[in-house]
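Hi everyone, sorry if this is the wrong subforum. Our group has a chain we'd like a structural model of before ordering constructs, and none of us has done structure prediction before. Sequence below.
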Amino acid sequence: MGLKKIITLFSSVVLNISTIYGFPFDARSLTPRNRTGSDIGLRATAASVTYTGLIQVRALDGRVIGFVRNQDGLLPINGVNFGSNNQDLHVTFTTPTTGNGPFDILATDPKFTAPFYVGTALIVLIGIGSAVSGPFSNVIQSQSILWNINPTTTQLTAQYINPDGSHPTTVIGYDGLRNSLFLTGDVAAWNSQNNPLIPATAVNFFFVPSTSPPVTYNGRIQVRAGDTGRIIGFVRNVAGLLPVNGVNFGTPDQDLRVTFTTPGLNGPFNILATNPAFTAPFYIGASSSATFGPGSGNSGLFLNVDQTPLLAPPTATGQFSIGEWGFWFLDSATGKLAAQYVNPDGTRPATVIGYDGLRNSLFFTGDVGAWNTLNNPLLPAAVVELFFQSS
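Answer:
Right subforum, don't worry. Here is the predicted structure as tokens:
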């Protein structure tokens, strides 16, 4: 069979399969579509509530199957974890002030690359996995703002939105043979269409709080090249207008020392300077009111800012204009620090840290390549990664 025929056959198979499944896949937060009506979920009169913990998978009879997994690869969260506890997916979400949903669910300790939202995506299969925030992403058709919670039982339910805007009955299915989670309107019909050796079953999701105690860290922030891992230096600590905005190439006593406490999970949390050579504010974050996204050169300086709510849009701080600080996450195994910037409209874009070596300046953005195009520096900025180093 020639290469052209193989490609044609593969494309046909993908097209046919893609109309069958609905997985939880990592979706980034998109704007909800047509999220009104009695089918959206329970309504509460209380203020919004933030949850941090795990997603437990249970059979309809209440038997615990396990927790949603966390691994790298193509389908990182599409099954149940049957390995060690550190392969459970940890998440955070906040209910809206109008009720118990809809909301998106963010992975806080991803072992996979962005996107980091838990939703449903149409790729080769439509399944539960990592998705871009919102109803549909610009890369793959996905929905993330589809979750509701019953605060009494902590059961999580999904409300999928059809392309025509209708709200179908949405069921979470589990294909035990493939260890695959998916969304569908009818598990029995799914079985008839797919004829699995072991029929899939309907399951329920429940939120389970983390039992890990908070951990406090004290140390420095190391800057490494994103492509090679080469150590560039530590975040600086100097007096002046941009005291922490670059790398320290002086003496060790000019390294910035910080403290932060993880909330029983890997984030979000704030980072506080403990040896500031500068005047207040002393929290470390982004000074920006811009909207980040792919193809946009918008950015925010890595800077000392005043305290703002966790994972909140840019807030007036009194330092420069507006900023964010409560958006940090820690991979406790590697010490890597990651940031999740929140756009003014509440969406949470992929967030990278850039380093402008010519100006010795650290910044946050959604696209370093677009930043370089916009700013046309003599020496292009590069992606860097931050790592915590204990004192």
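For your construct planning: Residues 212 and 297 are 38 Å apart (CA to CA). Helices lie at 3-17, 187-194, 368-375.
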